[in-house]
Each structure stands twice: as structure tokens, then as C-alpha cells.
Write a structure and sequence with these properties.
It is a single chain. By secondary structure, the chain is α/β, with parallel strands linked by helices. It has 3 domains: 186 residues, 3-Layer(aba) Sandwich (Isopropylmalate Dehydrogenase); 117 residues, Protein-Tyrosine Phosphatase, Chain A (Alpha-Beta Complex), CATH 3.90.190; 36 residues, no CATH class. The chain has 11 helices and 12 strands. The strands form 2 sheets. It has a 10-stranded mixed β-sheet with strand order 2-1-3-12-11-4-5-10-8-9, with helices on both faces. It has a two-stranded antiparallel sheet with strand order 6-7. β11 and β12 form a beta hairpin. It is globular and about 65 Å long. The structure holds adenosine-5'-triphosphate. The site of adenosine-5'-triphosphate (ATP) has 12 residues, from loops.
Length: 354
């Protein structure tokens, strides 16, 4: 059955990665109908709002979205894709492809996936003046002082819910189960700052621990997030799947990307109960916009994740293999991986292996 996919190219250098990626997917002859609603600059140029109703309707009528990256004008679309469509599990794989530039001495075999809760935590983005908290009469657990004594200053609210944690934990356990069938260890690590933030991050750990009982075939452990950060760098290959609250996940998945070659090769997918969108981990790379040198690997691998989600797993495997072979052969690499190839040349090299 034909799947419908919305394309939102985003800003700056992002379209330079998205367009050739779509061409690569087309070569795989999968039944995908691409929809390109006006969003951001294209919408504004037509006198529409940055995220017009027709773009929202296009998303609602589609099976998935392939998103570039945004530095501003496409932000309302991104907010809708995440909070509007409740895409709560942000899956960020870090897999080393031999030929990529890793700072590790022996990166071969590094293949982990960070599953970041995508909706809650500090990203509910409710901030304000500390003085406004006075009616709550809160006290700092460590200093014993009234919270309002920490002023003038600003606060941010961190929220972790049982429901939000349970659903992302299940997503992560199910991913670990699927990976186990493909030969991975079948291990899930839950990490947060549960020793200090015993209520919020403690809830995240407790709920995940409870959910673990439903997945006895997956080895489960917990780590305090600073310990995890250390082990991620020192013993990266020990990890399989990691489930983590939103802010820590945002930061540490960029660190994990650095281990396998950087932002240019880091894909992601954001999954909800009935929708998913796919985007590279990197931003719009404004400093290299218009130069045709953005590494499209992150976007190509995000498209491969999308193909898998849509049920085209063979095509997803073909695309990923073509990327791996291109790096293994090694003569066509973009500047971020130590090469001199352009974005288009890299995509042509991948296309020749499909
Ligand atoms: P955001 O806050 O949206 O993540 P940012 O400006 O902090 O954006 P990026 O846009 O990801 O971060 O860029 C950070 C640096 O990495 C820039 O120097 C950029 O050129 C580089 N970079 C990011 N993605 C790529 C890529 N795909 N290929 C090559 N270089 C990239």
C-alpha cells in the first residue's frame, strides 16, 4: 500500500541534505507519495502563515514526516510534530561505520541507541521569576531555605510523569528486544539523576524498573547519569539501548554522535502512538549553507529509519548498506569526515551502490 510522507526541508543548509536524500529513496522504488506543503520560508513567500492549516492537515493525513532542520521559520511545524502529534520516543542511534572519523582508538563495533523521552522534563518549557513561586511556600531540600530566597532569579519546571515514562520505557524495551533478534546483546540501561532528584528522576527510574519485569529477556540495569556520561566515553561498546529523560538525552546523544563521527552522521526518529517523524540530530548548519558540503548521512540514515517504520525494511537495509559501503570504500567523503567530496558527490556514491 502506498505510504504518504510529508517533506519539510527546513532552513539554511538543511534542504541541501534533504533533497538528494529524497532522490535516493526514490531510487529504491518504494511506494511512497511525497507531499510538500508550504512551511516556513515557502509559506511566508506565498503570504501564508509559517505553518498554515494546509500544512497541518497534510501532516495529519500522512503516515510520516521527513524533516530537515530548522533555525526558526519552520519551528511551529516542528512543535506540532512533537507536541501536537505526541511523538514521545526520540530514538537516536550511534553506530560506527568504518571510514568515519571517530575520536576513539578502536571504534569498530560501537553500536548503541539512545531513547530519549521527548515531551516532558524541562522541555515543558515553563519558566518564570522565582518571586512568583512565593504562594507555593517551597523549601530547598538541601539548604532548608525557602525557595523564594533564591532571588532575584528565574526558575524552570521539570516534570516527569508515570505515563510519560512508562510509554518511552516500553518503546525502549521493545527496541532492545528487536535488536536482540538481530544479534545485539538485548540490554537496556536506564539513566537519570535519581540520587539527587529523587522525586522526578527517581520516578523515571522506578517506573522503568517496574516495566522491566514485563521484558525478562532484556537485561536491565540503572546508572546515575554522570556515571553514564563517563562510561559512554570510556566503555562505549558496553551499551546497547539506553532510556533517558529529555534534557540529559538531548545532550548525551550529541556526545554519543561525536563518538561515531559527529553530527553529520547522527540520525533520529521521533515515534508516537500513531505517528512518527524523522530528522537528523544536527541543526541547520548555517555556517556551511549554500556550499554543497553538508554531510547528508544523518538525513539519509533518518530516511532509512523512516522506511523501516513504514514497513519497507528491505529498502531501509539497502540504503544503510550503501552508506556503510561508501564509507568502507573511503574515497568519497564530505569535509566533516576528512574528505573533499560535495554533498551531491557523496549521494552519487551511495546511489551507485543501491
Ligand atoms: P541547533 O541548535 O539547531 O542544533 P547548531 O547551530 O547548534 O544548531 P548545528 O547546525 O548542528 O548546530 O551545527 C553545529 C556545527 O556542526 C556547525 O559548524 C555545522 O556546520 C556542523 N554540522 C552540523 N551538521 C553537519 C552536517 N550534516 N555536515 C557537516 N557539518 C555539520
Amino acid at each position: 500500500m502506498t505510504k504518504r510522507v510529508v517533506i519539510i526541508e527546513g532552513e539554511d543548509a538543511s534542504p541541501e541534505a534533504v533533497r538528494p536524500t529524497v532522490d535516493l529513496v526514490d531510487r529504491l522504488q518504494v511506494e511512497i507519495e511525497w507531499v510538500r506543503p508550504p512551511v516556513g520560508e515557502t509559506a511566508l513567500a506565498r503570504g501564508l502563515a509559517a505553518f498554515p492549516d494546509e500544512a497541518r492537515a497534510a501532516i495529519d493525513e500522512s503516515d510520516a514526516t521527513l524533516f530537515g532542520a530548522t533555525s526558526g521559520k519552520s519551528v511551529p511545524a516542528l512543535l506540532y510534530l512533537r507536541w501536537g502529534r505526541d511523538t514521545y520516543a526520540n530514538v537516536r542511534p550511534s553506530r560506527f561505520f568504518p571510514g568515519c572519523q571517530s575520536p576513539l582508538r578502536e571504534p569498530e563495533g560501537l553500536d548503541l541507541v539512545i531513547v530519549r523521552e521527548n515531551i516532558e522534563d524541562l522541555y515543558i518549557a515553563a519558566e518564570g521569576d522565582v518571586a512568583d513561586l512565593a504562594p507555593l511556600g517551597l523549601t530547598s531540600r538541601f539548604s532548608g531555605k525557602p525557595v523564594v530566597e533564591f532571588q532575584p532569579g528565574k526558575y524552570a519546571i521539570k516534570v516527569i510523569t508515570e505515563k510519560g515514562t512508562e510509554r518511552v520505557a516500553r518503546h525502549a524495551f521493545e527496541l532492545a528486544q528487536r535488536r536482540k533478534k538481530q544479534g545485539h546483546p538485548g540490554r537496556l540501561t536506564c539513566t537519570s539523576k535519581y540520587n539527587v532528584l529523587s522525586q522526578t528522576d527517581g520516578l523515571f527510574r522506578d517506573v522503568t524498573e517496574r516495566v522491566a519485569a514485563d521484558y525478562p529477556d532484556v537485561a536491565f540495569d540503572t546508572l546515575i547519569v554522570d556515571d553514564f556520561a563517563h562510561k559512554l566515553v570510556k566503555h562505549s561498546k558496553a551499551f546497547d539501548v539506553i532510556v533517558i529523560p529529555n534534557l540529559y538525552g538531548d545532550i548525551l546523544s550529541d556526545a554519543a554522535a561525536g563518538l561515531v563521527g559527529g553530527l553529520g552522521v547522527a540520525p533520529s526518529g521521533c515515534y508516537g502512538a500513531d505517528y512518527a517523524y524523522f530528522e537528523s540530530v544536527h541543526g541547520t548548519a548555517p555556517d556551511i549553507a549554500g556550499k554543497n558540503i553538508i554531510n547528508p548521512t544523518a538525513t539519509i540514515l533518518s530516511a532509512a529509519m523512516m522506511l523501516d517504520y513504514l514497513g519497507f525494511s528491505e529498502a531501509a537495509g539497502t540504503l544503510e548498506r550503501a552508506v556503510a559501503e561508501t564509507y568502507a570504500e573511503g574515497s568519497v567523503k564530505t569535509p566533516d569526515q576528512g574528505g573533499t567530496a560535495s554533498t551531491i558527490e557523496f549521494c552519487a556514491a551511495v546511489a551507485s551502490r543501491l
